[in-house]
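Hi V.,

You were right to ask for the full record rather than a summary. Here it is.
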Amino acid sequence: MNQKKRIFMTIWVVLMFVSLDFVVSSYGENVLDKINRTGQVTMGFREGSLPFGFLNKKGEWVGFDIDLGEEIVKALSMKFGKEIKLIRQPINPKTRIPLVVNGTIDIGIGATTITLEREEVVDFSLPYFLTGTRLLVPKDSPIKDFPDLAGKRVGMGSGSTANIKGIDKAVESGLIKPACEKILFEEHNKGFLALQQGKIHAYFTDASMLAGMKAKAQNPEDWKIVGRYLTYEPYGMILPQNQSAWRDFVNATLIRMFKSGRFEQIYDKWFGPKGEVPLPMSEEYKILLKALSYPD
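Predicted structure:
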């Protein structure tokens, strides 16, 4: 074997071992064991979704989802009897699922709707938030409901497959006729900027997200949320498949928060009358939390 072939074979063997080690570390090890071994957990959060995950005026990364993540970190620290460090990783609608699948993050907490299609590639926690899809438009817009979108340009998140399908079904059913033009954005704040610039006529996503966009605007009174609920959207935390112990731990932590009142405290901090986005819990949401408060 000449020198070039020996070098090639050496490189190939090294790459095989590196690849194998990556697969084992990313998929083979129990997530809870990895967290215990490394003393840290990597969580994905949004950066531009008020009040779920965003940068405040001080440049601090804060939000409803981040507070929930920190509660899980506290529970992990109690479980292992040592401090577990939280590593924060930015996610957006396009990256949140791939980053869980490839093992970059251990959990994604980023206002993500649970769908059967997504369940084919990732797992989800129990639902922790319930909302529905509506429209954000300028206060003087003639758009009042989905039929008014006929022939209009409508913005939405490029990774929000449930939202995109909701509009598609509305078009197919004849609710929006002729069809509207879908304009996709990687982040909701970019979509809102386009709405402010008049590049689109309306922005379509979950009402809770729209309320955050409106609240963050320079003049919130210049915008209004309109339309019926086109779909209902239960949010779950994104988890890797085949990690039942990790999923059970996250779910147990959520249930204890529901039952102790801690979850309601965090909700009130962000969505209460004095919160970043005042948004009272719907009756359906309250019933959901009660139903999920499993006995010990």
